[in-house]
Amino acid sequence: MRIADICEFYSPEGGGVKTYVHARWKAAAARGHQISIIAPSAHDRVTKVEGGALVEVKAPRHPIDPRYHIFWGTARVHAALGRISPDLIEASSPWRGGWLAASYPGDIPKTLFMHEEPVMKWAYGLFDRWASRQTIDTRLTPWFWRHLKRLYAQFDHLVCAAPSVAKRLNAAGISNTLTIPMGVEDGVFSARHRDTELRGGLLERMGLPETALLLIGIGRLTGEKRWPVIMDAVNIAARDVPLGLVILGGGHAHDTVRSEVERNRHMTLQPPIPGRREYARFIASADVFIHASNAETFGLAAAEARASGLRMILPDEGAVADLAEAHVDLTYRAKDSAEAAVKILQEHARFTREGAGRPPCAVRTLDQHFTDIFAEYKKLRL
What we know:
By secondary structure, this protein is an alpha/beta fold. It has two domains: 2-183 and 365-381, Rossmann fold; 191-354, Rossmann fold (3-Layer(aba) Sandwich), CATH 3.40.50.2000. The chain contains 15 helices and 14 strands. It has helices at 16-31, 75-84, 96-102, 118-127, 133-140, 142-152, 163-171, 196-205, 227-237, 254-262, 276-284, 300-307, 319-323, 337-354, 366-381, and strands spanning 2-6, 34-41, 45-49, 52-58, 88-91, 110-113, 157-160, 177-179, 213-218, 243-248, 267-270, 288-290, 311-315, 330-332. The strands form two sheets. It has an eight-stranded mixed β-sheet with strand order 3-4-2-1-5-6-7-8, with helices on both faces. The protein has a six-stranded parallel β-sheet with strand order 11-10-9-12-13-14, sandwiched between helices.
């Protein structure tokens, strides 16, 4: 099967999308498929890889994040699709890339992989600090939903990686959803990678003893990740108990996050770790994973932390909430730093009694995800 993925947010310097794409090429090669990733770039170029190709299409640079470019004209992308002659077209965003996929002529099956749910991520992310969800839904987003529904109707399936995303779309009257949960890279993440020396070094960096609780937050340093919620919660909890927070990530809000971190001795900022094995060792060496974004569509960092043996403190909305395991993980009201601080204190008390680590649990792998998605795509071709 030849699949063309119009992947608006792929970049060689990217994060989760890049990780997913490279794992997908590997899975495709093992199953005899070919996936061509069509991505905006500084130039036109085709690079063959095992499992497919990276098809770069010249496009303007992204105005906010210079690591990325943005699709503009139609001709280059449609010409690339013509050369590939795919059996199925997938779009990876509901933005320009989605419309480019939808407008390609011919009776070719088309899917839209929901890497993000834009109303949750952008409308709520930008405005819900000033207005209620009901106000946003009734006054700000109806026109946006109409726009999205016109796009979504042109795809055979909207592929959702978490039940919460499909549920939200269904509630908005969109029925062509297909839930195929994500997973973590098989054999990469494990509690066996825990490194007590690394853990001790991180705590020492913050002037904390090894008996302190070590929290880790992972993700892009951007507004929708809601880092102030986590940092405020840690500041509140740290008044009563010894704990430290490692923030692992990079992004355009780096300077803002760093300035806050530098004012707090119980926080430290760690740039992205490129090697997957080293990244897995870093995660497993923490005690608790904490997250604040309620606009996730994957919750990949949380899934990796769970596979690494960490307990989790998560908001009660978004895809990360789907990953919370009752009686093991703690959830708090999304955006509520005070309640998140209470959960940190509860986890500190448990850590003091029992130590780090979560009970063994089954973790879905990316290989299982790819098996399921290729099977569904094969059905669309029949």
